[in-house]
Amino acid sequence: MGWGFDAHRFGGDPPIVLAGIVVDPDRGLVATSDGDVAAHAVADALLGAAALADLGELFPSSDPRWEGADSMSLLAEVVRLTGKEGWEVAHVDVTVVAQSVRVAPHREGMRRSLADVLGVAEEVVSVKATTTDHMGSIGRDEGVAAVAVVTVVEAAPPA
Q1: Residue 10 carries which DSSP code?
Q2: Measured between alpha carbons, how far is 101 from 146 in angstroms, rounded to an integer?
Q3: For a FRET experiment, which of 13, 17, 74, 84 has its CA 20 to 30 Å from that of 141?
Q4: What is the pLDDT along the chain (159 residues), one digit of tens a residue?
Q5: Distances (CA, A) of 71 to 2, 93, 139
Q6: CA 135 remoteness from chain centre
Q7: Where are the alpha helices (DSSP H) in the chain?
Q8: What does the pLDDT read at residue 158?
Q9: CA nearest 39: which of 81, 72, 5, 73?
């Protein structure tokens, strides 16, 4: 089991993308990549479950190669790396924490998108959202965060 977290403040170029899905076409997040906090949290959770590096070690923000990178492609690379180590995803639970960004209209698309990249059925991918009831930086609507838990199992040997 692994746990991941990511947060980015508003700013930067639109759109806001979560799990590869545009959820707000008018606002952006300040980030080296596309700022997809859901994909980042899931990737870090997967890396943690496999006891590998963290996302910042694999894709450092100081490296210009990752400027504007598609976070779902980075997640796909993490899936490849963890698979190479003999692990496959069993379950994913991700929660987006935001005051004004609405996840509910995009939830099913986010689940499908994550399931596709992770190579699992949608039924084992949970996407939820919450606010902080106006407390702290997220509550003041300064940005968006996500937390994720991923469980892995040993990959079945090739047939």
Answers
A1: B
A2: 12
A3: 74
A4: 999 999 999 998 999 999 999 999 999 999 999 999 999 999 999 999 999 989 989 998 888 888 889 999 999 999 999 999 999 999 999 999 999 999 999 999 999 999 999 999 999 999 999 999 999 999 999 999 999 999 999 987 766
A5: 19, 18, 25
A6: 23
A7: 37-49, 55-58, 71-84, 107-118, 136-139
A8: 67
A9: 72
Q: Tell me the C-alpha to C-alpha distance, in Å, between residue 63 and each of 32, 33, 46, 59.
A: 9, 11, 22, 7
- Among 39, 34, 50, residue whose Cα is nearest residue 148: 39
**Pairing of β 143-154 and β 87-98:** antiparallel
Element (H, E) at 148: strand 143-154
Cβ(8)–Cβ(101) below 8 Å: no
Sheet of 143-154: strand order equals: 2-9, 143-154, 87-98, 125-130
Per-residue pLDDT tens digits for 62-85: 888 888 899 999 999 999 999 999
Rounded to whole angstroms, the Cα distance separating 3 from 76 reads 17
